[in-house]
Design brief:
Length: 289
């Protein structure tokens, strides 16, 4: 099977072979890595297991060394348990999961960079709650991880997944696009629906600055994972309903890369602009928050 470097190529490969998009991604990756499909599946299953372990092992009492983060995932779980949540069990669980995963990263726990550590909460915050609420087996979640990986690979090649290069749109935006494709896969949607979902998710976060307070991947990063997860769900729902992105996924990805190139360095992970440059942000950066 040929390689792919664009969404259009991935869709063409999948359709020509008569294979689901996730399988096309797996076969292509196996050829590139000189790996068997069984070994590839086991590797992806391990990533899912790490996501589950981090979520289950979250400690609401733990705080990051900076003191900027910790405990918010527990607060969200308490709020959900109170029965007062407006968003419902799925979205509420997604919010809690994103916070918990981001806090695990800040507290130096083991996470999956999907596609980066700063955006590590988006994909599991979509996959794990959907798996629980919809009663899906791990096999379905692993297939969704392959679908997400395919779009992540394309974004990394055509644009960037680095906040230092293209701002937070390249981290949370890319993760949200990946997660949206994963949701479509969970519902057995088509490759073209995944492409539309990824485009809708990414273009909703274009221009997002990377402005970490104190140069740490905590504020506003952790709570942006929540936005990325919920954004992914809404994009996937639209795509599954038959709603299309007027701008094709490849062009959205290219636009993200161009926007990143136009961003000043102060908004690309240098902690010199945006929230990091506010009065309170500077106090935290100096250890006086």
């Amino acid at each position: 099977m040929s390689d792919y470097s664009s969404v259009s190529q991935l869709l063409a490969l999948s359709e020509a072979a008569g294979l689901p998009l996730w399988k096309t991604v797996q076969i292509t990756d196996c050829a590139e890595q000189n790996m068997s499909e069984a070994d590839s599946w086991a590797k992806m299953a391990d990533m899912l297991a790490v996501m589950k372990s981090a979520d289950a092992g979250y400690d609401r009492r733990q705080r990051s060394l900076s003191g900027l983060s910790g405990g918010d995932g527990g607060k969200m779980e308490d709020y959900l348990a109170s029965g007062r949540a407006v968003s419902g069990p799925l979205v509420g669980r997604m919010i809690a999961a994103a916070l918990k995963m981001g806090e695990c990263n800040a507290c130096m726990k083991r996470i999956v960079a999907a596609p980066t550590a700063g955006a590590c909460g988006v994909l599991p915050a979509v996959l794990l709650p959907c798996g629980e609420v919809l009663g899906l087996p791990d096999e379905k979640l692993i297939e969704a991880l392959y679908a997400a990986a395919g779009f992540g690979r394309i974004i990394a090649g055509k644009a960037s997944i680095s906040g230092a290069q293209s701002g937070c749109q390249a981290e949370i935006g890319s993760a949200s696009a990946m997660a949206s494709a994963a949701v479509v896969q969970l519902r057995d949607g088509t490759g073209r629906q995944m492409a539309n979902a990824a485009a809708l998710a990414l273009k909703s976060l274009l221009g997002l600055a990377c402005d970490p307070v104190g140069g740490l991947v905590e504020v506003p990063c952790i709570k942006r994972n929540v936005i990325g997860a919920v954004n992914a769900l809404t994009a996937a729902e639209m795509a599954l309903a038959g709603i299309e992105s007027r701008i094709p996924a490849d062009e959205v990805i290219e636009a993200m890369g161009e926007i990143g190139d136009m961003m000043p360095s102060s908004l690309r992970e240098t902690a010199q602009g945006g929230l990091a440059a506010t009065e309170t942000g500077r106090k935290w950066g100096n250890g006086n928050g």
